[in-house]
């Protein structure tokens, strides 16, 4: 198992509902490309791959995370997975409140806060996702929406040791579009001023790729990225890790 302490600079890959056992070779290739990274490197594969990937990456610098967890420790919740199960499979982190969970499953910020407490109890570091829709952005509600999500999604006790914040504008995820550097800087400055611990790692997510990573990491207040599709290939995600190391 890797150290559960999250470095301030973090490149996290969210595989979402992608990946079969054959894709574990990509994680192994990433580990070979980043034997001693100067930043944190995290992969969040589907739950089905956590245990075998943990075995394949044993002794490497690549940490593993889950993509969600249930609020309960155990029980009659068919199809769900508890935070302790993620930790038992080899995870050190878990993504909570991703916009796809909020949209597809009607997940509320209050539910995210409840899951956050469960994640901490299991010894997991949580990556809490926030972000506005295109309609929110057009109406000038970005900071209002992100601020409300931040306040409602964080349980008491959130600090730099147990929680990472990921700003992911909903309209940028998987679209190939990214906010301007000024827009990203504005939101990250707002978050830095409003998080309960100024030392928290703040990630940007939304169509991050090897071509734009360096420019994104040069933006003040951005400590790393939560990467989707580009994290599925070791060559692409390795380039993003290298860009973060150089920032």
Mean pLDDT: 96
What topology, given as strand order, has the largest sheet?
A: 1-2-3-4-5-6-7-8
Total DSSP E strands: 8
Question: Looking at this structure, what is the CATH superfamily?
Answer: Aldolase class I
The H/E string reads: EHEHEHEHHEHHEHEHEH
Fraction in beta strands:
15-25%
Structure in words:
The protein is of the alpha/beta class and 247 residues long. The chain has one domain: Aldolase class I (TIM Barrel, Alpha-Beta Barrel), CATH 3.20.20.70. The chain is 38% helix and 15% strand. It is built from ten helices and eight strands. It has helices at 24-33, 47-56, 83-89, 99-104, 109-121, 134-138, 142-153, 181-194, 213-217, 234-246; strands at residues 10-14, 40-44, 62-66, 93-96, 125-130, 163-167, 202-205, 224-227. An eight-stranded parallel beta barrel has the order 1-2-3-4-5-6-7-8, surrounded by seven helices. Strand 1, helix 1 (24-33) and strand 2 form a beta-alpha-beta unit. Helix 5 packs across helix 7 and helix 7 (142-153) runs parallel beside helix 8 (181-194). The mean pLDDT is 96.
């Amino acid at each position: 198992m890797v150290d559960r302490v999250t470095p301030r600079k973090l490149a996290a890959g969210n595989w979402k509902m992608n990946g079969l056992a054959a894709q574990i070779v990509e994680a192994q290739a990433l580990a070979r490309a980043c034997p001693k990274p100067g930043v944190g490197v995290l992969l969040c594969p589907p739950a089905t791959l956590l245990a075998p990937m943990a075995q394949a990456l044993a002794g490497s610098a690549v940490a593993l995370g889950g993509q969600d967890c249930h609020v309960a420790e155990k029980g009659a919740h068919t199809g769900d997975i508890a935070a302790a199960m993620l930790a038992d499979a080899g995870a050190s982190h878990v993504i909570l409140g991703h916009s796809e969970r909020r949209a597809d499953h009607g997940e509320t910020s209050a539910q995210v806060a409840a899951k956050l407490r469960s994640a901490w109890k299991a010894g997991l570091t949580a990556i809490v996702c926030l972000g506005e829709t295109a309609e929110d952005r057009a109406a000038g509600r970005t900071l209002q929406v992100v601020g409300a999500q931040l306040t409602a999604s964080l349980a008491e006790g959130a600090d730099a040791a147990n929680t990472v914040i990921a700003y992911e504008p909903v309209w940028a995820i998987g679209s190939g579009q990214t906010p301007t550097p000024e827009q990203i800087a504005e939101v990250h400055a707002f978050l830095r001023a409003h998080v309960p611990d100024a030392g928290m790692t703040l990630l940007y997510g939304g169509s991050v790729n090897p071509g734009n990573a360096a420019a994104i990491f040069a933006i003040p207040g951005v400590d790393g990225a939560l990467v989707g599709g580009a994290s599925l290939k070791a060559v692409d995600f390795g380039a993003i890790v290298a860009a973060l190391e150089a920032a």
